[in-house]
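Dear Dr. V.,

Thank you for agreeing to look over these. As mentioned in my earlier message, I'm a first-year student in the group and I'm still getting used to reading structure tokens, so any feedback on how I've presented them would be very welcome. I ran two proteins. I've put each sequence directly above its structure. The first is here:
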Amino acid sequence: MPAAEPPVVCCDLDGVVWRGEVAVPGSADAVEALRSRGHRVVFLTNNSNLTPDENVAKLAHVGVDADRTDVASSADAAADLLAASLANGARVLVCGGDGVRAALTDAGLEPVDGGRVDAVVVGWHREFDFAALDRASGAVREGARFVATNVDATYPTSDGMLPGNGALVAAVATASGSAPEVAGKPEAPMAAMVRRRFGERGLVIGDRASTDGALAAALGWPFGLVLSGITTRAPAPGEEAVPDPPPAYVADDLAAIARVLLGVDTQS
């Protein structure tokens, strides 16, 4: 019988491939090494701000070849969640970046900035302000569905941590009096999208056990934790600790974990 194809490697972006605009050293070579051994390497991000084309361009900038089919984001998961129950062309208020707008459009929904809407999607973006909070929370109070792309508390950059989408979502939840449906890692909409797009056998690599690791558990796949992002061995406020017991694989960065993976059987 022919040997089974190696499992797909689902790799986080922020804190794994890059921090902000700076590549994590060795990440591009690690992706190439995994691919050279037959693994398909794809990218799962809870950052909904960038469009697929922008993520592909950013990957190219740090030396990683990819196309749109190799990247899935929490914006895609949010759009899939809404498209499954809303009519084609339903109006969705965007409290987020261009990535959310692109995902909604691709799913047959209409991204809008105001007026009567069927749903609100809150995703990470730097332009969040009182006016955005007012629009989003007001629409939710009037009956619109409230969807969060993700609820990560922080976002790693080369200059340190920024507030994550969880902070924005908490503001809208407080002002609207409603809790959101969450689409991204580690929730069911993202897990379903991963299986649909990338298959039934894989491994997740990320810098957060609370999201990447929990997604791996939901999928029944092994998890590789890297310490180049939010998780460290001696966490500061806002960072995460290595869980006890630790996941299947723990290494300093993607390059180090790729070396480990290429010497072991990653089959789930």
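The second protein is here, in the same arrangement:
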Amino acid sequence: MNPNKALWEQGDFTRIAAAMRESGEDIVRQLGIARGMKVLDLGCGDGTTALPAAKLGAQVMAVDIASNLVAAGNRRAEQAGLAANCQFIEGDACDLSGIENKTFDRVVSIFGAMFAPRPLDVAREMVRVTRPGGKIVMGNWIPNDPTLVAQILKISAAYSPPPPEGFVSPMAWGSPNNVIERFGAAGIAWEGISCDRDTYVFDFEGTPAQFVDTFRQYYGPTMNAFAAATRDGKADALYGELVQLFERQNQCQYPGRTLIPATFLRVTVSVG
């Protein structure tokens, strides 16, 4: 099996996405989506940004490599009465060969396509399927950033085996220089690319420790880290580090709820 597919199918990202809905809607409201626009959401999960785009009247194609998330997204679209204009399909951000050139007004990937293993292919495909005058918008976690997700991935990596030869870190998408280089190779001049820091808020109904438990049970990268740490007798140490991180970054003053902001790089690419 494709290792990236295996990574995201082994858990259940819907459990994490439940804490991400409000910020997902905020991002979509800023995309300039009008009724009738065609939107592609890459690495869509179960629809945190795809469904809000459909609610604005867009025709949305939502693509994810994990079949369980595609099924969950189609269920959510059906339940929301949006199945007519929001379809979830299985696919790979590295190869969108089933999609015609210059199809979409907006190509969106919020913490999705950054995890695909061939970033140059991802950039090329996103540019290829975007209409002239359209925009590509990515949300990417930033390497070595002190906020939540970058630190989860950093801590998890410290307990995991070294990556295979040739591995390209998904966090490289959080560097503006890499973004400019990758879209430049796809034919986009640097003047058409903007990179800005933004904030995404995780809103979890439960304590920080319970939120860590959710990552441990359902988030692929954290699941892998715990599997490796368990083999090494270090699972308790990993758990303790993550609980400290979540408790330190929690900004909610009320017990039983967790609010954690995380900084990300918002990438906007104008396609001529």
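From my reading of the second output: The chain has a mean pLDDT of 97. Strands lie at 38-42, 59-64, 86-90, 104-110, 130-141, 193-204, 258-270. Does that match how you would interpret it?

Kind regards,
E.
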